Amino acid sequence: MTTALSLISPPPTRYSPPPLIHAGDYAAWYKHATGEWIYDFVNGQITNRRTGRLVPFRVKPNGYLEADVIVKGVRIHVRKHRAIWLAAHGILAIPVDYALEVDHINHNRFDCRLENLRLVRPEENRKNRIRFFDDPAVREIRRRHREESASFTELAREFGVCASTISRIVKRQTYKGVSDD
């Protein structure tokens, strides 16, 4: 029975609990559980079983390796280091706490070997974010960009930082006091 009050009352709001896992973690688990991805934990590589090729991870501006995958018709971004950590530790080890992060122990975001990954709280992971370069390294980055036309991405891979860090060094937004002697 419809009443006048029910016609003017707003519908009840739908409560949506926070997701239990990251979408990328779910997609990585799905690819692992279905056998579509084969993991090499020693070398930090993921191979597509169907094609026999490495999964094409690309470098994002923040320096992480990420691939777009389709799971049940939905495109999801999967970070390589999280996929490898998850495959090695299993579905029950998925970080339910959104505050937990998979950390690269040696600070190199391209090194996704299992022995280089660990699960930490953000405070611990933030300790890794500050990367100091000595003056010769800053000069080398600027020189190679200027003289050899090395891209920010190429230099970032070599020095184990994200491309935006290299960009700031080259544009003198950081390390302003280092001359090009």
TrEMBL record:
Q: Which Gene3D superfamilies match?
A: 3.90.75.20
Tell me the GO molecular function terms.
DNA binding
In which domain of life is the source organism classified?
Answer: Archaea
The HTH psq-type domain sits at 141-172
Tell me which residues make up the HNH nuclease domain. 79-126
Name of the molecule in the record = HNH nuclease domain-containing protein
Organism the protein comes from: Methanorbis rubei
What taxonomic classification does the UniProt entry list for its organism?
Answer: Archaea, Methanobacteriati, Methanobacteriota, Stenosarchaea group, Methanomicrobia
